[in-house]
UniProtKB/TrEMBL annotation:
The gene is LOC103487595. The lineage of its organism: Eukaryota, Viridiplantae, Streptophyta, Embryophyta, Tracheophyta. The chain crosses the membrane at residues 55-76. GO terms for molecular function: galactoside 2-alpha-L-fucosyltransferase activity. GO terms for biological process: cell wall biogenesis; cell wall organization; xyloglucan biosynthetic process. InterPro entries: XG_FTase. It is an enzyme of class 2 (transferase). May be involved in cell wall biosynthesis. The keyword Transferase applies. Keywords: Cell wall biogenesis/degradation, Glycoprotein, Glycosyltransferase, Golgi apparatus, Membrane, Transferase, Transmembrane, Transmembrane helix. It is found in: Golgi apparatus, Golgi stack membrane. This is Fucosyltransferase. It comes from Cucumis melo.
């Protein structure tokens, strides 16, 4: 039926109403012709269907709600400060570095993460105050070996001792009062080793590790002079009680004046002694140990067995050193069995103790993680090159650049470049290598970057270069300089392959934390690149630069690098000592 709309609104409205009434009448007529039983059945099925859908919908909504609550609780929960799950599954973002993979760059996978490093770390720390302690496992390599059960037990025992005898505890206050009164402390069950902050950051990390191992071996509590920046660089390593000396410690103002001529210096005491041996001597309650590189033969008596027995008298030992003296501890007979039980693999001392002690403070951890994700995470392989130049004058030096290139190319760490090749458009995903350069100068980074920018690689690999900072000269006294230095040590420790410079404690720290055997660049002479340019390290252990060459029993000089198979001369310093696990490697 054709309906024509009138120009008058009222008539249009009436026409629409008539049409609607006719439609409703037709609908009621059709319904009256239907079987009432069918109508009942249809209504019943309709209601039942709506009920089932409603129940299923409510069930789905409930499950979604439970899932959301669970996810939120996992993400935002704050574990109690006295408990950390040792082997939890966590979501870890990982960049896909497989060139043949069809998956996108960023993947999120579930991985079991050993936050406590096979029991090396205590579970009694809170997580918020130190982000790096339980999160560094997502960035650094797995431990090179499993720590011995005896080492784990010894660390838990030390933590109990530190809690019982640490600063401001009853035992500490009692011993301190005896120190103030200049009386004997032999009745105290707590003895202490005080470490004086001294030298550059790399040296401080290595010497503090040495001091801690000595404290473990002698059942002493290690207390640390924070210096100007130690508290800004590192988290507290022990639960509940600080390892930092308080500002009101009586001897704190005297630390800077301690030297070989101090009246309580052990070397001077032994030099001035009129007794034929140390068996009947009585030491003062405070003894200063001068183990700096300029120490003399009397100071070096510290490494003799009979002198260690004598030092047990003093409740307070104060140590200043710039040496990683751990290898010589392995030559002291009374420590031999204990050290063998602690470290069945001899080249793991700094690797284990460094990962146990040194957790970057949150501000430093931010520098590390932001740089890692921005520049290193996507690479198929990460290569670290640490360049330390001892030559005077303004660099960069051509012979250093030649040596770095010679080493990395001969050892197949970096691919060759070909000047005559035409650039070929990449097909699919290519393997990429991210090269992390650390140096006080930006010149080496710029020259290496330009070589691989201006020339294609023969392998088709994509090589990128990064350098976090270039401070031009060492600024040990500046906190931000040391924060950047610590961040760069940790970033180097996350690389897959490492090249380090001879004599550099910066490189020693990086290789030890990462569990890496680096290629060591030989020290150049007369500004000439050495040939060969580098060699692979025997172990990941640092080198002791100024060891004693003295046989305590025979009381004569001896080559201490040939006494036992696991203490050998260093690759980069012929007179130095280092620990190795396989002497025939």
């Amino acid at each position: 039926m054709n309906r024509t709309f009138n120009s008058y609104p009222d008539e249009n409205y009436a026409n629409v109403r008539r049409s609607m009434r006719q439609t409703e009448d037709d609908h009621h007529k059709n319904l009256s012709d239907k079987d009432p039983h069918c109508d009942f059945k249809s209504n019943h099925e309709l209601k039942f269907g709506f009920s089932s859908i409603r129940v299923m919908g409510m069930f789905v909504v409930l499950m979604m709600f439970i899932s959301v609550i669970f996810s939120v609780s996992v993400v935002f929960r704050d574990p109690p400060s006295d408990a950390v799950i040792e082997g939890s599954d966590v979501w870890i973002p990982q960049w896909n570095s497989d060139p043949d993979s069809k998956v996108g760059d960023l993947q999120t996978v579930i991985q079991p993460v050993d936050k406590l490093l096979s029991g090396l770390l205590s579970a009694k720390h809170g997580v918020g105050s130190c982000l790096s302690r339980y999160n560094s496992v997502a960035y650094q390599h797995k431990l090179a070996y499993e720590p011995s059960s005896y080492l784990i037990s010894k660390l838990r025992g030390y933590e109990d001792l530190h809690k019982r005898c640490g600063v401001y505890t009853e035992s500490y206050n009692k011993t301190l009062e005896q120190l103030r009164s200049n009386g004997s402390s032999s009745s105290s069950d707590c003895k202490y080793l005080l470490w004086i902050s001294f030298s550059g950051l790399g040296n401080r990390i290595l010497t503090l590790t040495s001091a801690f191992l000595y404290a473990l071996l002698t059942n002493r509590v290690l207390l640390v002079d924070p210096g100007t920046d130690m508290a800004d660089l590192f988290c507290e390593p022990f639960p509940e009680v600080s390892w930092f000396l308080p500002q009101d410690f009586p001897l704190k103002d005297d630390f800077s004046s301690f030297n070989q001529n101090s009246p309580n210096c052990y070397g001077k005491i032994m030099k001035n002694s009129i007794m034929p041996d140390s068996s009947g001597m009585i030491l003062p309650s405070v003894v200063y140990l001068h183990l700096v590189h300029d120490y003399d033969d009397d100071d070096k008596l510290f490494f003799c067995d009979q002198d260690q027995a004598l030092l047990q008298q003093s409740p307070w030992l104060v140590m200043k050193t710039d040496n990683y003296f751990v290898p010589s501890l392995f030559l002291i007979p009374s420590f031999e069995k204990e050290l063998n039980d602690l470290f069945p693999n001899k080249d793991t001392v700094f690797h284990f103790l460094g990962r146990y002690l040194f957790h970057p403070a949150n501000s430093v951890w931010g520098l590390i993680t932001r740089y890692y994700h921005a520049y290193l995470a996507r690479a198929s392989e990460r290569i670290g090159i640490q360049i330390r130049v001892f030559d005077t004058g303004t660099g960069p030096f051509q012979h250093i650049l030649d040596q770095v290139l010679d080493c990395t190319l001969k050892e197949n760490l970096l691919p060759q470049t070909e000047r005559q090749m035409y650039a070929i458009d990449p097909v699919g995903n290519q393997k990429s290598k991210a090269v992390l350069i650390t140096s006080l100068s930006a010149g080496y980074f710029e020259k290496l970057r330009d070589i691989y920018w201006e020339n294609p690689t023969v392998t088709g690999e994509i090589i990128s270069f990064y350098q976090p900072s270039h401070e031009e000269h060492q600024q040990t006294e500046k906190s931000i300089h040391n924060q950047k230095a610590l961040a760069e040590m940790y970033l180097l420790s996350t690389t897959d392959v490492l090249v380090t410079s001879s004599w550099s404690t910066f490189g020693y720290v990086a290789q030890g934390l990462g569990g890496l055997k680096p290629w060591i660049l030989y020290k150049p002479e007369n500004r000439t690149a050495p040939n060969p340019p580098c060699r692979r390290a025997m172990s990941m252990e640092p080198c002791f630069h100024a060891p004693p060459f003295y046989d305590c029993k025979a009381k004569k000089g001896v080559d201490t690098g040939k006494l036992v198979p696991h203490v050998r001369h260093c690759e980069d310093m012929s007179w130095g000592l280092k620990l190795v696990d396989d002497p025939y490697d």
